[in-house]
Specification:
This protein is α+β, with helices and mostly antiparallel strands. Helix content is 26%, strand content 24%. The chain has a domain of 74 residues: Gyrase A, domain 2. It has a 4-stranded antiparallel β-sheet, covered by helices on one side.
Length: 115
C-alpha cells in the first residue's frame, strides 16, 4: 500500500508532491545572495542605537532593509547614507509608540513588476 502511494506521488507534478523536512535554505528565494548595497546599509545602521533591523523582499520584488529605532535624531543620517548608496528611503513614524521605521529600498531588476 505504501508503494502505491509513493508511485502516485511520483506521477504528480513537482509542485504537488509532498516534501517533508524541507528547510528554508532550499527554497527558490534563498538562492540569491544579500546584495552589497544592503550589506553596506546594515553595517552602517548597526553603529547607531537601533531596536531592530531586517532585510526581505517586498511585494513588488523590491529588496528592503527595514530599520526600527526609537531615536529620531539618527533618521537624517540613516536616510542620507541610504540615498548615497542609491536606495530609495521611506520613513514611517508611529506617533503612538514613538517608533520610527526606515525602509531602504533597492529595486530588483530581475523581478518583473505588474503595472
Amino acid at each position: 500500500m505504501a508503494d502505491d502511494q509513493n508511485k502516485n506521488e511520483e506521477e504528480m507534478p513537482h509542485f504537488m508532491q509532498r516534501q517533508y523536512g524541507k528547510s528554508a535554505s532550499t527554497l527558490e528565494a534563498s538562492h540569491e545572495e544579500l546584495s552589497d548595497v544592503r550589506k553596506q546599509m546594515i553595517r552602517f545602521a548597526l553603529e547607531f542605537p537601533i531596536r531592530d533591523i531586517r532585510t526581505y523582499s517586498g511585494y513588488k520584488g523590491d529588496l528592503l532593509v527595514e530599520i526600527t529605532t526609537g531615536n529620531d535624531d539618527i533618521l537624517p543620517e540613516l536616510k542620507a547614507h541610504a540615498e548615497s548608496l542609491g536606495m530609495e528611503v521611506v520613513v514611517k513614524e508611529r506617533y503612538d509608540t514613538r517608533i520610527h521605521e526606515v525602509f531602504c529600498i533597492v529595486p530588483d531588476e530581475n523581478i518583473y513588476r505588474l503595472k
